[in-house]
Amino acid sequence: MTTAWEIKQYDSIDSTSLEAKRLIGQGHGHGVVVSARTQTAGRGRLNRVWDSAADAGIWFSVILEPDVPMEQMSLYSFVAAVAVAEAVRETAGLAVQVKWPNDVLSGGRKLCGILLELVAERNQPLRIIMGIGINASQQLADFPEEVQQKATSLALETGKAIDRNLVLDAVLRWLDVYSRQLEQSGFEPVKKRWQELSCMSGKAIQIVRQGEALLYGTALGIADDGALLVQTEHGVERIIAGDVSLRAADGGYVV
Questions:
Q1: b or e along 37-53 (b: 16 or more beta carbons within 10 Å of the residue's beta carbon)?
Q2: What three-state secondary structure class fits 71?
Q3: Interhelix angle for 164-185 vs 76-92, to 10°?
Q4: E strand or H helix at 169, and its extent?
Q5: Which one, of 132, 222, 124, lies nearest residue 170 by Cα?
Q6: What is the pLDDT of residues 15-53, one digit of tens each?
Q7: How far apart are the C-alpha atoms of 10 and 23, rounded to whole Å?
Q8: What counts of helices (H) and strands (E) characterise the chain?
């Protein structure tokens, strides 16, 4: 059954994911989408600040009540990444790629970030808050200096303005498609599409774990539980958390 999305639009809010959590506390559930023109306290992975200037991007969070075992909840990170990639390819014509665990890239630069949170309320079903931020209209100077070499936007990549509502609608449509695939057919269809879109397969990578431990190897793909499989000098290792960078032509590591 197709999800009937309920979109709640705000001009300015601290965080769409924080508002989604508040709405869950008020009894709201599956299919609610919190969207804002700007966020004053947008967050990325590892509690990093996510710059969310007014009308510069597509900032939203989705509440889901997944019909999967708890151990598969984290797989919705891949569902989200694939849905965003499909939507951007469809609406902007960009051949975007995905990078483990949940980044969407265009031209090797980060276009979108995704943050998944599990919410357990007493006597309520487990819910996922899926926070998504897609850079839309920024020019290079609009990004903080420290990320200008790593970030991009739909406007920078296409050279034109993209209808943000059109992109949001497409993401929600694809999110419904891949969520149902995960629930009805397991992870394999989502995993297959993620690996088709991946920028990592066969590439030399660097992984930073727990803030400082470095691991080097070659990305092989993802396992059935979403772990990254890496060929190292010691054999194949499973990575369940860490920051991944791809090796560049000059020998450094980027994104």
A1: bbbeebbbeeeeebbbb
A2: helix
A3: 140
A4: helix 164-185
A5: 132
A6: 999 999 999 999 899 999 999 999 887 665 545 555 656
A7: 13
A8: 5, 13
Q: How far apart are CA 188 and CA 118, in angstroms?
A: 22
Residue type, 150: K
19 CB neighbour count, 10 Å cutoff? 20
Question: Which positions ≥6 away from 40 have C-beta within 8 Å?
Answer: 12, 13, 14, 15, 52
- Burial degree of 171 (CB within 10 A; 0-12, 13-18, 19+): buried
DSSP state of 248: P
Tokens of 165: 């509502």
What backbone torsions phi and psi does residue 235 show, to the nearest 5 degrees?
A: 120, -170
Q: Could you tell me if 151 and 108 are in contact, meaning their C-beta atoms sit under 8 angstroms apart?
A: no
On whether the CB atoms of residues 35 and 60 are closer than 8 A, the answer is: yes
DSSP class of residue 54 equals T
Band of residue 118 on the pLDDT scale cut at 50, 70, 90: very high
Structure tokens at 88: 């951007």
Read out DSSP for 208-235? EETTTEEEEEEEEEE-TTSPEEEEETTE
